[in-house]
Amino acid sequence: MVDLTYLEFYSGIGGWGYALELALRNVASSSPEPKLLGAFDHSDLCKVVFNHNHHNKNLFRQTPIEKITQKQLETLSAHIWCMSPPCQPHTRQHSNQQCEIDDPRSKSFLHLCDMIGSMEESTLPCLILLENVIGFELSGTETQTSEESEPDQKQQQKRRGSFQTWREVLSKRGYRNAHFHLDPTDVGIPNARPRHYTVAFRPGSLHSKVKDATISAQLKYAGSMMPTKFDNLFAEENLEKPPTIHGPESIGGTPTTALPCIGDYLDADCKLESSLLRIPEKVWSSSSAWCFDVITPVHHRSACFTHSYAKFVRGTGSILYTGPLETESNDSNEVVKTNRKRDRATAFLTSTIFNLEAPDGRSFDADWSKDIDWENDMRYLSGTEIARLMGFPVSEPAAGKSASSDDAIDKSFRTFNFPSTTTVKQQWKLLGNSLNVEVAGKVAEIGITLLFMQ
Question: What is the pTM assigned to this prediction?
Fold first, then answer.
């Protein structure tokens, strides 16, 4: 089996590495592990968690990405590059997305684009995988008015923006590209985290590097996702037009009705951390608490968790109601009691405690939570619970699952956990800046399959 090598830029806690391992298990007959050649991130905290989950502690490098030289990249000559560039210049909160190319946080990504454009051909990565927020593909879409003078070269680069610069350099170096907008719900996880993904591969490049005629024979084909279907996603791009964006149907997305419940992702015992996960009174007693996105163990959805989880109320992630899910009643009618137990979620939604809906789906009510026992029945999710919802192979089994259950994590492969030195707040921040491993793994499957076939 070919030993694929990779570099992970903006590595964070190593989500792309887990995604590659998952993808190879799904597409390769011998389930090899990809070989990491280097991970780049500036964060001391990321380094601690990343190294905790890797055997080789010398591969994490805090070299600023914009300082990496062409010679270094050519010497490494990795088969795969993975990256999740800073999303802030492209978020909805950014005041001027059309000037994102001037944002200092875009500098490192533009440097990588320059490196791809100038590296010696035989050392270029065979496959490049990118994740960013939806909106990244709109960067630099400002149009020039007729009154404006002809822009110089620097102005033209600014107008192109990061995404168009990215598309152009990939096209120049012979990559075939496909762009996707995908969400964890598309792969069967009850969490919202819509993201943009790009898969770029150079046909024939892996065969040229390893000169192994049996590469394509090392694939296994599972389900209905065949290489020919993947290949159809990579139509030749017209750089003068907006890119084609593929949705969940391109990866055989999971219908939302088939999503598991939140209870399948919860810790077996949160008592040790209960005080750390408790929502402070000054927060839940404030009027802004109405904006909390509240879920229960029987729900099949959760909001996107950001690095500001527990710092702000609105738009940073769901909180968990663990109290009674049924309205107390002295009704002696056994049929009524049976029906209530049959559908606990419906019973809770019609409960007298409060009307459980997402904040944007309900009208403001100052007394919306007056009957909630905030001390005992409402809490934040733990770091490991959020990690499970983000597809990380957490080593500790979730509630109701044993280490020997059919859907338990296979510990013959690399698992994930936080070192004991990281606080819950640090875990929340790290996960908010990470990616969903399961979704990234599906994207990586597409690239690896075509890489082996062509």
Answer: 0.86
Q: What is the dihedral of CA 139, 142, 148, 150, to 10 degrees?
A: 50
Is 197 in contact with 124 (CB distance < 8 Å)?
Answer: no
The lowest-confidence range among 130-134, 254-258, 380-384, 426-430 is 254-258
Sign of CA dihedral 260, 21, 43, 158: negative
- Estimate the share of the chain in helix, then strand, then coil, as percent rounded to the nearest 5: 40, 15, 45
- The C-alpha atoms of residue 152 and residue 166 are separated, in whole angstroms, by 20
Say how many CA atoms lie within 13 Å of 272 toward its Cβ. 7
Query: Which distant-in-sequence residues (6+ apart) come within 8 Å of 351 by Cβ?
Result: 325, 326, 327
For residues 442 and 189, what is the distance between their CA atoms, to the nearest angstrom?
Answer: 13
Strands (DSSP E) found in 287-435: 293-295, 318-321, 378-380
Q: What 3-state class would DSSP assign to 176?
A: strand
Q: Who contacts 425 (Cβ-Cβ below 8 Å, separation ≥6)? A: 310
Are the beta carbons of 107 and 66 closer than 8 angstroms? Answer: yes
Q: Specify the length of the chain in residues.
A: 454
Q: Using one digit for the tens of pLDDT, what is the confidence trace for 280-311?
A: 999 999 988 888 999 999 999 999 999 999 99
Phi and psi at residue 36, in whole multiples of 5°?
-80, 130
DSSP 57-86: TT-EE---GGG--HHHHHHH--SEEEE---
- Mean pLDDT in residue range 83-99: 63
Alpha-carbon span 139 to 106, nearest angstrom: 11
Maximum C-alpha span of the chain:
82
Within 88-211, strands assigned E span 127-133, 176-182, 195-201
Give the pLDDT confidence score for residue 147 in this predicted structure: 42
Left (φ > 0), alpha (ψ -120 to 50) or beta: where does 77 sit?
Answer: left
Q: How many CB atoms lie within 10 A of CB 241?
A: 7
Pair of tokens at residue 357: 């809906």
b/e per residue 117-156 (b: at least 16 CB within 10 A): eebeeeebbbbbbbbbbbbbbebbeeeeeeeeeeeeeeee
Q: What integer is the mean pLDDT of 186-209?
A: 93
Q: Are 228 and 166 in contact (CB under 8 A)?
A: no
